[in-house]
Amino acid sequence: MEQQGYFHTFPAVQGVQAGRPFYIAMCPLRLAPRLFVFDGDEVPPEMRAQRTLNRARVPEIAEYLVTHPDSYILSALTASVSGPVQFQPLDDTRQSSLGLLQIPMDASILINDGQHRRAAIEEAIKQRPELGQDNVPVLFFVDEGLKRSQQMFADLNKYAVRPSYSLSTLYDHRDSGSDLARFLAGNCLTFKGLTEMEKSTISNRSTKLFTLSGIKHASRALLQKQPKALITTEEKMLAKEFWEAVGEQIPDWGRARAREISTAELRQEFVHAHGVTLHAMGLAGAALLAAQPKNWRVRLKALRGVDWSRSNADLWEGRAMVHGRISKASTSVQLSANHIKQTIGLKLTPEDEALEAQAQR
Q1: Global confidence as pTM
Q2: Residues 58 and 92 in one domain
Q3: Residues 280-291: pLDDT tens digits?
Q4: Which one of 53, 89, 101, 357 has the fewest CB atoms closer than 10 angstroms to its CB?
């Protein structure tokens, strides 16, 4: 970008939406924090054109840029220009959509979408100044007043849908936990052919028994790994061995794999067919591997004696179920893990016992 007289000048492409011109340009990252502004927190919501900046989101995005300088992806910022702009086509016919966009230097360029990316760019450049040479695409509109800007924000966000956690896991090749989940879904006999890869919930008509996101959560709990923590090949193989050993002690999972019983029937009748139990098994498994690193397989045989029926309300109500419905709450996961720990001969920790006492009130 160059500064010519009283204008900021961008090489740009001109287009039309709903009868209004708009422009797509490239902006060096180092200039984005200076050019683009957003409404301050002190402005009432009805006088703003976007949400307030959530500072908690900025470090995560900035870390992403800093950690992956050779492979990051930034989607376009959308901004409104408060003053008249000029577009000069490159050819003499003035019909070209390629040209130079001139924005008055005293105009305000207000971000309609992307304020967190803009703030993260500013933080990332402080840590990696070389990122300032990169570019971010910017979609420019001419500001038609507060009402129009607010409508733009509403329209831009109305149909934005976050992908399911399972689909994000499937496509995330930077995260070790996601890599572990994909490995287990494709190579662990317990999960192979029974894993829903895209959705984080399973429909009644589905032939799947586990979700990829559920496998990820349970396996991170098993290996006691925090998000973004590295998982070694040895740990991946240990997780595979553990889940296959668990599968051997829950015959219904094998029956589902052999199509001898429908997964819908299992979900309707048994708590072991739900993510809360898988996650609880991961928590209990972590304690087992720590206490019995050599003999953990023998301890798992006790799982065969568990009555996993949802009709066994004396056991599962208040643990995996609340008022007869499966609960995904963290307390339900921990209480279910407590019962599994006791089943396989492990002592409860003081924290576990305190939770049990609280649940009995």
Answers
A1: 0.80
A2: yes
A3: 999 999 999 999
A4: 357
User: Is the domain of 169 the same as that of 152?
Assistant: no
Structural tokens at position 220: 């991170």
Question: Which of 2, 7, 27, 271 is CA-nearest to residue 134?
Answer: 27
Question: What is the number of domains present in the chain?
Answer: 2
9 and 144 in one domain? yes
* Res 8: pLDDT: 87
Rg of the chain over all Cα atoms, to the nearest angstrom: 27
Quick: pLDDT tens for 211-243.
999 999 999 999 999 988 999 999 999 999 999
What element of type H or E holds 152? helix 146-158
For residue 108, what is the DSSP state? -
Contact 85, 20 (CB under 8 A): no
Q: Do 183 and 49 sit in the same domain of this protein?
A: no
Domain encompassing residue 137: 2-158
As a whole number, the mean pLDDT across the chain is: 90
Residues 180 and 58 in one domain: no
Termini Cα distance of the chain: 67
d(CA 168, CA 161): 12
